[in-house]
């Protein structure tokens, strides 16, 4: 279907089509006026929570209109936007993007037929997409559209039509009417905006049009000072300024495929998600669309969906190279998630390196008194001489965790065995008894041993945890905090019934019952004045509540007699005493503790408990008298040393327990494990190089990746304030997205993914394994997610080159035939169609010239490119790019207005430059013209080099030019890269 640019090509439309398009333009501008006016008022008066949504609505208005013919409800005109706020309009058919109507609009396809209960059978008969003004023109065109692109199907005798209109308000001024008026019935006349306007209202509109008495059927209305229309596409890019577009348009967000929409609207419960796709499939946009969907949860008016965690400034996106940062920031801005931070992976490493103290920097004072920091571990200054790619895998990370686990198990066992009470503390009165201190120490050891048992099972790799070191610090801290709660709580009461035994009084009645079972005699101790008028403690009575209490007197070698001394009772008389207890007044002796102390018969436990509450209840056991409500012996103040420094048993034991992990340094642990347990890496031939490097206290970049990943594993869940910052779990982001994931190592992917809050596991990965350029990069993405399974999506449509079928078919055919990706073939005739499209057209050219002979022709080609096009010259490697740029620099400057530049980091906004680079530096970017030179230097048997070719040929939007020796191309490659005429000449 031909595309008509209006109003310039109105002479190619019928009178009816011209009138109908004019009405559509006016209707959409009226609808935009109503939306913007409402948003402008609400962004001033709404609450702070609502204001951001209305700011977004004010900026974007609406971006898509869908016209639907229904069986029951006639013609429906629906609109949506990427703005999320509480605005909706039945009159305009406007709905937010994640509402049912919004989703219907977003995935609408022209001609789609379906059925619903409300509408019956329905057909989508027209789709209109809009682009808003940006930059300096945005403010004065806030109620105007820069572009409207519409497609309608043939319907009710009318032909289908595809049109593009720029600057809708200015276009209306330039519109003209047909010479002969005809009654026109359109979807606009039935639209919600105009359905209540009488028929003569429509006729009155046509009477306002201007008519010129000329010999032509049509004529444009022109002001004296005519303003020229600049042509823009639906992405907001002008013909003269295409390279200013360095991000992704909201058009993608509002026009996803069904698969793309599934990804973008994935729930927070989906967990980690891989969006894999062919080059140009919009996978990055889809990932950002999911990021926007999640961020919108923090500002949605829907209480059921609202989630304050997902603020865009609280999420993060990671990229591998700096050139993608600006690209993605521009994309985020277009989607109104401009506060979403985008950072290079190495900036994450730098930040975590400082927190984790990988280099173990110490501070000292220099000769002049200034503070100087010195790193114990330093960076490797030269490239490593061996293939270390195995050290970047998840298998290596698991082996490292197991070896360090074995190392730490030995350390913890030694700690448990060496835990002791310092000799200076044993001088304290309550610890002076031979076995009292050992009894307290045994309580601590027994508690630790119980927790360490399961911990040792994990450290030895037998627990089923993802890693041997999982949650290690959290579990250690929990064990120590359990001791703090159970043993070191200053508010607990204790009893010390014997030298070798200490008991906690958790509940009075239970404690008394326990003491009874130990044959303890209950005695009341009062504070009384002695003959010297001093306050002293004195045992005043023995309490007997139960028959066991009576038996315990005899068990403690006590004797019982009547108060008058006439009757003496022995253990065999216990039953008689108990039966007659209310009539007997007795006293007892328990030498050497008490003599001639009266026995009191307690009616119930309350009579005993009152003395316990008043801290007067004591016990007699093994010739010792002790309190039944002692303060915690672990936290009692103890004075030590000549300066009488105050400390406690708990403080000293706590220090010993914490010493084991407070001294941990990640690099030291890794080094010691490599040196002490090399058997865990027995499958790796280069383990000795790694151990020697760490032994020399040198760290390569991939060593830091491993150390940070190990730190992440060890500190999972470790949030105690008692831990040093390097040992604490680091703050998480509610959502994380990772672009070009195939260019990271497995350990790097794991580390980035672990920055996501485990509550949601909202990680979105974007990538394509067929665009993987480096050796040693990720092979097994599933292994990078040991805590949650990875959901995968494959996007097969090349959206970047969809308007240039020859370029799209070339890259798709190369991927299918040369890279052997069988997943792309949806039908038997797919390859045949791609061959046909790839070999016919003028968007692709192969020039049979080797790298050494291309200078003059290359300069001429660059000089011929239209002004404003982005141009990249790609070589097999960066060294060749530097050589070529140096060869053509002077000629290129003289013959064109462009400046050549060898680029490792490409800035697409520098439109005057020709970027000389290699495939590694154009990943994720796109150019109008791509010139690929030196194809004769490609090793077609090398998978990495095939991937580089695929990356390069999938970058151009308009033109692909290649230099090489076409006679050396493998047959399958020639089929993809050569046109039909070039194949014949070859």
From TrEMBL:
Transmembrane segments: none annotated. GO terms for biological process: recombinational repair. It comes from the Bacteria. One of its GO terms (molecular function) is ATP binding. InterPro entries: DNA_helicase_UvrD/REP, P-loop_NTPase. This is DNA 3'-5' helicase II.
């Amino acid at each position: 279907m031909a595309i008509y640019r209006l109003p310039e090509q109105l002479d190619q439309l019928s009178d009816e089509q011209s009138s109908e398009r004019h009405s559509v333009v006016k209707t959409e501008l009226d609808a935009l006026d109503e939306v913007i006016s409402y948003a402008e008022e609400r962004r001033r008066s709404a609450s702070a929570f609502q204001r951001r949504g209305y700011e977004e609505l004010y900026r974007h208005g609406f971006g898509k209109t869908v016209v639907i013919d229904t069986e029951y409800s006639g013609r429906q005109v629906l609109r949506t936007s990427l703005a999320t706020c509480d605005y909706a309009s039945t009159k305009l058919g406007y709905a937010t993007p994640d509402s049912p109507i919004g989703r219907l609009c977003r995935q609408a396809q022209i001609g789609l037929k379906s059925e619903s209960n409300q509408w019956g059978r329905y057909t989508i008969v027209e789709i209109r997409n809009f682009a808003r003004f940006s930059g300096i023109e945005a403010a004065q065109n806030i109620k105007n559209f820069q572009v409207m692109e519409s497609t309608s199907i043939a319907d009710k005798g009318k032909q289908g039509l595809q049109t593009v209109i720029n600057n809708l308000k200015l276009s209306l001024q330039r519109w003209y009417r047909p010479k002969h008026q005809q009654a026109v019935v359109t979807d606009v006349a039935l639209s919600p905006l105009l359905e209540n306007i009488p028929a003569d209202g429509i006729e009155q509109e046509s009477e306002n049009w201007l008519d010129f008495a000329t010999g032509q059927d049509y004529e444009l209305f022109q002001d004296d000072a005519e303003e020229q229309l600049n042509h823009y596409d639906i992405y907001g890019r002008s013909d003269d300024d295409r390279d200013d577009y360095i991000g992704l348009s909201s058009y993608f967000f509002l026009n996803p495929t069904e698969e793309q929409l599934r990804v973008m609207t994935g729930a927070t419960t989906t967990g980690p998600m891989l969006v894999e796709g062919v080059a140009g499939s919009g996978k990055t946009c889809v990932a950002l669309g999911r990021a926007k969907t999640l961020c919108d949860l923090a500002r949605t008016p829907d209480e059921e969906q609202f989630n304050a965690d997902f603020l865009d400034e609280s999420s993060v996106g990671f990229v591998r190279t700096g050139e993608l940062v600006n690209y993605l920031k521009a994309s985020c801005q277009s989607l109104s998630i401009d506060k979403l931070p985008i950072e290079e992976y190495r900036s994450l490493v730098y930040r975590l390196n400082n927190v984790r103290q990988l280099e173990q920097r110490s501070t000292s004072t220099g000769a002049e008194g200034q503070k100087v920091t010195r790193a114990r571990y330093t960076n490797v200054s030269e490239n490593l001489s061996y293939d270390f790619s195995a050290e970047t895998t998840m298998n290596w990370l698991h082996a490292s965790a197991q070896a360090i686990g074995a190392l730490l198990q030995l350390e913890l066992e030694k700690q448990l065995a060496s835990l002791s009470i310092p000799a200076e503390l044993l001088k304290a009165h309550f610890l002076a008894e031979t076995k009292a201190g050992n009894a307290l120490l045994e309580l601590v050891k027994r508690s630790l041993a119980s927790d360490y048992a399961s911990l040792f099972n994990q450290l030895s790799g037998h627990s089923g945890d993802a890693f041997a070191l999982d949650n290690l610090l959290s579990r250690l801290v929990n064990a120590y905090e359990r001791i703090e709660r159970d043993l070191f709580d200053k508010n607990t009461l204790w009893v010390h019934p014997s030298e070798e035994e200490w008991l906690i009084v958790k509940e009075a009645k239970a404690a008394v019952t326990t003491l009874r079972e130990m044959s303890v005699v209950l005695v009341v101790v009062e504070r009384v004045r002695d003959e010297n008028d001093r306050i002293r403690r004195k045992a005043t009575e023995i309490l007997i509540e139960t028959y066991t209490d009576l038996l315990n007197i005899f068990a403690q070698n006590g004797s019982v007699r009547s108060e008058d001394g006439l009757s003496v009772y022995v253990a065999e008389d216990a039953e008689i005493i108990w039966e007659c207890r209310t009539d007997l007044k007795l006293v007892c002796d328990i030498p050497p503790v008490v003599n001639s102390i009266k026995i009191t018969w307690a009616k119930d436990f309350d009579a005993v408990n009152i003395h316990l509450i008043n801290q007067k209840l004591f016990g007699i056991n093994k010739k010792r008298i002790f309190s039944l409500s002692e303060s915690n012996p672990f936290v009692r103040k103890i004075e030590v040393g000549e300066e009488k420094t105050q400390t406690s048993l708990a403080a000293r034991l706590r220090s010993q327990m914490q010493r084991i992990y407070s001294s941990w340094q990640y690099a030291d642990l890794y080094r010691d494990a490599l040196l002490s347990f090399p058997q865990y890496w027995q499958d790796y031939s280069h383990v000795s190089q790694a151990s020697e490097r760490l032994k020399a206290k040198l760290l390569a970049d991939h060593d830091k990746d491993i150390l940070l990943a190990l730190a992440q594993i060890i500190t999972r869940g470790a949030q105690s304030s008692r831990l040093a910052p390097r040992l604490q779990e680091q703050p998480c982001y509610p959502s994380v997205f990772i672009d070009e994931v195939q260019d990271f190592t497995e350990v790097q992917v794991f580390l980035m993914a672990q920055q996501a809050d485990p509550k949601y596991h909202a990680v979105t990965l974007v990538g394509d394994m067929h665009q993987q350029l480096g050796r040693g990069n990720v092979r097994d993405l599933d292994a990078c997610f040991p805590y949650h399974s990875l959901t995968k999506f494959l996007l097969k449509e090349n959206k970047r080159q969809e308007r240039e079928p020859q370029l799209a078919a070339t890259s798709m055919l190369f991927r299918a035939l040369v890279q052997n990706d069988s997943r792309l073939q949806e039908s038997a005739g797919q390859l045949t169609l791609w061959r046909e499209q790839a070999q016919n057209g003028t968007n692709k050219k192969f020039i049979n010239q080797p790298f050494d002979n291309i200078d003059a022709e290359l300069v001429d080609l660059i000089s011929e490119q239209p002004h404003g096009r982005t141009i990249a010259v790609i070589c097999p490697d960066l060294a060749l790019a530097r050589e070529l740029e140096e060869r053509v620099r002077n000629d290129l400057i003289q013959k064109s207005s462009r400046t050549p530049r060898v680029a490792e980091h490409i800035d697409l906004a520098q439109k005057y430059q020709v970027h000389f680079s290699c495939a590694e530096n154009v990943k994720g970017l796109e150019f109008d013209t791509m010139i690929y030179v030196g194809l004769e230097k490609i090793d077609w048997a090398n998978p990495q080099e095939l991937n580089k070719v695929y990356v390069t040929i999938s970058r151009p939007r308009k033109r692909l030019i290649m230099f090489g020796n076409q006679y050396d191309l493998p047959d399958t490659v020639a089929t993809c890269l050569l046109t039909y005429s070039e194949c014949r000449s070859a």
